[in-house]
Amino acid sequence: MTSDLDEAVSAFVQHRARLFGIAYRVLGSVVEAEDVVQEVWLRWQKTDRSVVVSPVAFLSSATTRLAINVAQSARVRRETYIGPWLPEPVDTSLDPEVGAQRAEALELALLLVLEKLSPTERAAYVLREAFDYSYPEIAGILQLSVVNVRQIVSRSRKRLSGEPRASVDAVEHRRLLDAFVSAARTGDVASLEAVLTPDTVSLSDGNGLRGAARVPVVGRARVANLATATPRFWREADLGLVQANGRTSVMMYRDGSPTAILTIAASREGIHKVMWVFNPSKIAAFLDSRARCATVPGLASAHG
Questions:
Q1: Which residues belong to any copy of the RNA polymerase sigma factor 70 region 4 type domain (predicted)?
Q2: Looking at the DSSP assignment, which residues form a beta bridge with residue 238?
């Protein structure tokens, strides 16, 4: 029994980052993704593993299907969310691609766009683009025909093609972020506008938290004015750099406590999306996410 459980643990640990990466991209939530991974671990323990030909195929299938189910119920819950909803940022300092073979569908702005797809469409796109699963493998996971899967992925690509712009590299992203923060802190509206695109949008995720804008702010001048409107907002904050969703972002602290995460989306034309996460539960999830690969959920109870 001990040897069998050790083998189960070994197989799960080997693929855990991938499982989290799949669930996170489908759900846009660190907490919900961890819950899915926890449930998959429980199912994996109870499964007759002697008949499982490919552990990674079994685990990936279970993760994807559970994530789709959770995404369907999450969509209903988000209808009552107050103000803009943003995906929960995930700390990628230890795993820059969050378990994927490619980093696709990881930046916060693209995860937000993925919300426009149905959960099944999102899963098919993520499996193909980020994890390089073949069409027959995706068909097996989603229990659809290969022809249907090809159509879903193609349709999803077309729907997304007009949305995300080609991202700048990490160095240019950091330069634009630094320029934005420096100009905002000093109230330099002209310098701030210089790094924003004409159609830039600012989104504040606070779920009704006081001080968080409840509607998107659109346009270069309006976003620049919003970012500089309250000088004490910057003056009373301490700033630190973090790695969120594969990009450098800013964590804001007040009296030593984290109060906001600022991240941007940028193309060659400049910053086209400014994203503020004020929701305390999402900040907490980000801080907790750094340790997600360090332990296997429920392992202590499994041995106990």
A1: 109-160
A2: 253
Token duo for residue 165: 């712009």
Side chain identity at residue 214, one-letter code: R
Q: In CATH, what number does 1-80 get?
A: 1.10.1740.10
CATH assignment of 170-287, given 3.40.640.10, 3.30.70.3180, 3.10.450.50, 3.40.50.1260? 3.10.450.50
Helices (H) then strands (E): counts for the chain: 13, 6
Summarised one tens digit per residue, pLDDT across range 110-133 is 999 999 999 999 999 999 999 999
Domain ranges of the chain: 1-80, 170-287
How many beta carbons lie within 10 A of that of residue 120, not counting itself? 20
Q: What is the spatial distance between Cα 277 and Cα 108, in angstroms, rounded to a whole number?
A: 11
Q: How far apart are CA 141 and CA 135, in angstroms?
A: 10
Query: What are the contacts of 173-182 at 24+ separation with CB within 8 A?
Result: 173/247, 173/248, 173/264, 173/266, 174/248, 176/264, 176/266, 176/270, 176/271, 177/248, 177/249, 177/250, 177/264, 180/227, 180/264, 180/271, 180/274, 181/239, 181/250, 181/262
Each residue of 182-225: pLDDT tens digit?
Answer: 999 999 999 999 999 999 999 999 999 888 889 999 999 999 99
Q: In percent, how much of the chain has pLDDT > 90?
A: 77
